């Protein structure tokens, strides 16, 4: 897994998947790990003291399904903004009936089309959210109505893509690497520029391909097709070059909440 988080604040992500250089944090990992334990002590925040009113743009397809559960478990008031074409809740593998029932009773839903900018402005302004997790935004024009509606927003956490980087043989990428303005993800770069220009406290997560339960993009098939055809599986020749091609969705959700909560480093 490799990702980059651009933080316009003093927030810091935990080791072992990050390097600390102040407000701007680059996150990259080359080895899989069974647990994710920060070197520094995590700031413990009780739900009663720091419960936030959180809006998740999307949240019923893949990443947001896991993210929203974690946010609800942490005691936050969570609303999913979707078009209502998919069920708002679905029971996940390994989730007990009791856990599913509790989540279903707490999650809230705001039905609408994010391309209806006037509806977005009116409906969000009436709710006054503290934090926005934007899982499905692609263009800056889709984000501007949200920040217009929420002038007191504490943080905007945006799902970008590692595809914004200029192609390079030197991997993994870090935040300072050159980006490709002609990338098919250029709308995400333009969104980051908009958030900066508007003075929003924002964080951009740039993951590579992601796998896990409920994935709608079968990124693993490439390997199985080669196995079925009896073809070799390419493996980097040097241990230092060994990298994850993807990140597991359950692991990705934790940095997304960590960038909001804040971490302190010894």
Automatic annotation (TrEMBL):
- Any idea where the NAD-dependent epimerase/dehydratase domain is? 54-237
- Give any single GO term for biological process: monosaccharide metabolic process
Source domain of life is: Eukaryota
A GO cellular-component term linked to this record: cytosol
What Gene Ontology terms describe what this protein does at the molecular function level?
UDP-glucose 4-epimerase activity
This protein's name: NAD-dependent epimerase/dehydratase domain-containing protein
Organism of this sequence: Panicum virgatum (Blackwell switchgrass)
